[in-house]
Design brief:
Layout (H helix, E strand, L loop, with lengths): L20 H6 L11 H20 L6 H8 L3 H8 L2 H24 L4 H18 L1 H9 L2 H9 L2 H11 L5 H16 L5 H12 L6
Helix pairs in contact: 2-3, 2-5, 2-7, 3-4, 5-6, 5-9, 6-10, 9-10
Length: 208
């Protein structure tokens, strides 16, 4: 049986402002897009609402009506600003991927060579396990989705190549992504064991 990553709590999931009881009682509906560029605010708040619901209920529970209610808008507004369920899901996953990549980049910024490769892989494991959207996706994903969104995603492979500062061979990035996925779905007993596996069997592949 496949081991699914355990869902964890994180401060990364943003809270969406709610309507105050006083406003409801008075019959006044506050402007949910007050205070900035309306289109940008709408997209940001809808995406944040979707991310919070995915982290709470899992990817399979993503529902446009629930997202609209959580963001404080109508179903039509969600479609107008971000599109349907597929587009919303893609946007939330892309945002999670960008967060994770930024975390890894900070972790490896001063490293080079084998140390950078090992640290990038281990930092990726930590970042994915700490991100509520990533955890929710992996917990409910199918093999087909793993292939489409992760293992076979050329953008993810390119990111892995850049973060590890390895060659420009696309196969290198794809292989690194698969190494990370294997440890996410079948983790070692503890972080020290994972570091040992990476040092012994992954880093030597890049050592002359």
């Amino acid at each position: 049986m496949t081991n699914r990553p355990t869902r964890t709590h994180s401060t990364q999931a943003r809270r969406i402002p709610t309507v105050s009881p006083k406003s409801v009682q008075s019959g006044r509906q506050p402007d949910w897009l007050a205070g900035g560029d309306r289109h940008a605010l709408a997209v940001e708040r809808i995406h944040a609402a979707a991310a919070e619901l995915i982290a709470r209920n899992g990817m399979a529970g993503l529902n446009i009506d629930h997202v609209a209610a959580h963001a404080g808008c109508s179903r039509a507004t969600v479609y107008r600003y971000v599109g349907g369920k597929s587009a919303l899901r893609e946007a939330v996953l892309t945002a999670a991927t960008n967060r994770i990549a930024a975390t890894i980049q900070r972790s490896v910024a001063t490293l080079t060579g084998p140390d950078r490769i090992a640290r990038a892989i281990l930092a990726a494991l930590d970042a994915v396990r700490a991100d509520p959207v990533a955890v929710a996706f992996l917990a409910a994903t199918t093999p087909q989705e793993v292939g489409t969104y992760l293992a076979g995603n050329p953008r993810l492979a390119d990111t892995a190549t850049a973060l590890t500062a390895t060659t420009d061979d696309p196969a290198t990035g794809q292989w690194i992504v698969r190494v990370v996925l294997s440890l996410l779905f079948w983790p070692a007993s503890d972080p020290t064991s994972e570091r040992t596996l990476v040092d012994r069997f992954v880093v030597p592949a890049f050592t002359p």
